[in-house]
UniProtKB/TrEMBL annotation:
It holds the Pfam family DivIVA. It comes from the Bacteria. This is Cell wall synthesis protein Wag31. InterPro entries: DivIVA_domain, DivIVA_fam. NCBIfam families: DivI1A_domain. PANTHER family: CELL DIVISION PROTEIN DIVIVA.
Amino acid sequence: MALSPDDVVTKQFQHVRFKEGFDPDEVDDFLDEIVVEWRKALTENEELKAKLAAYESGAAAPAPAAAPAPAAEAPAAGTAPAASAGIIELAQRLHDEHVAEGIAQRDQLIADAKSQAASIVSEAETRGREELSKLERERTTLEGRISELRNFERDYRAQLRSYIEGKLRDLETTATASGAQPVSALGL
């Protein structure tokens, strides 16, 4: 199993029942896998360092086992520095391509984020306008209702006042006709 750093970070162990912690056997097995992969990486790193040192010193290094040699002839002594320069040039070109790809991806992510932010702001502004419009309609309705209630109150008070004044006049008229003192004379 090829082990990557992400595998180590995302590894989930099963919880053991009836006690705290993880299953020790599972943890040991996983650590054994890490050690094997780490040792492979260290060995490969050492081999690559040795090959690089051989190329830099001008000696021809043996061809890698994974890549077949295109020609059966051994490279001449003068071609080792040229091959080393070619490898460095290839590495620089790959580096530049990866950097350019990263910049393009960064620019795309920024553009997408700006577009999404503009969409969210636009949606929020639209919602805000709709809510303000709705609240304005409710306010207009409530102000109309308040005006109706004030008119009703004014009319009701006027009717009540005229009713009470009419009853007072009737009371004074009845009292005067019977010879009693009018209510207004009593100071009420």
